[in-house]
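Cross-check.
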Amino acid sequence: MSSWTKSFRKNEATIRGQMAAAVKLALAAGIPVEEAMAPYLDMLRDSYEEDFPLVRVIDESDLVTRFDGPEMGHDNPPAGTVAHVLGSLQDHVVKLALSIAGLSGVDAWRGKTPDELDPRLAGITKGSIIVGIKFGEPATRKGQLNLPISMEEIVKSVRSAVRKLPIVPGYIDADRISEGLNERLTDPAERDAILVAASRIAPTGHHGINEVNFLSQKKRSERLTPHSRQIIKQAIAQPAARVSRNGTFTGTVRSADLDARRFDIRNVSSVGSLRCVYDEKFDELVRDSLDHAVRVTGFYECDGQGKPRLLVANEIVPISAGHKDQPLPF
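Predicted model, tokenized:
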């Protein structure tokens, strides 16, 4: 049970208790019971009309996001703003989902996002635009996808990462992201993917939106602003590693986020999948390297088990088909 549900039920119980006491006093004083109950029934009705929809959305969602700003200060925000919010939020969360799936070495689909990783609308409330989205349960499929792990495990990992998004705002200081975030999100690759998603969800100040709040089941609200967006973008442009080591890795480029300047290499010896960050001088090379083997050199960060997970590339070299170090992609 979420803290929101507990608060709602506590408030409901308080109102009902007050109503019962008012009825008792009314009977003793000869006052009509309906008259004594009326204000408390109004409070219960208001609570169910205004608070319960939000509580239900939070309880049923993997991520709840509230968008605030000049266009949101009334019950009927512009349809164009709502369409922009829904479309962009879904796009950003899908990209995060595919990134997390890719970190597990999963790229069995191309061109179409599987239903399990395409979030559904769990609910929307008015006032501010409050949107809840959730991931469905893995479907029963005819035939088998050639996946290194089960779809259930993939969805579990994706859901876990999406639910960690509300953690990010609490670690944004005036001019940087606190090192404490590294302690909360210990997988460097997952942390990087979550930060990229947060930078995209954070408001630009356009479309009448100047604040985005994450409403989680445990906390009331954590917000992102245009300033937060700039801080996160600075952090992901130059990711700081707690323990950086220099190394060279060979693998096959299987997915690339060209906007964020990230790509994953697969089939890395003793590593599996490695998330790589690059700068603009490699833009054309990375764009042309999808499904090709490359050798990447740079500083990398390991997870708690000592496994390389995130690398900042300072050299990317294509490998010819006959090169002895090229891993077999299948």
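Confidence is low (pLDDT under 50) at residues 322-330. The helical segments are 3-29, 33-60, 79-103, 151-163, 180-184, 188-201, 226-237, 283-287. Passed to J.P. for a second look.
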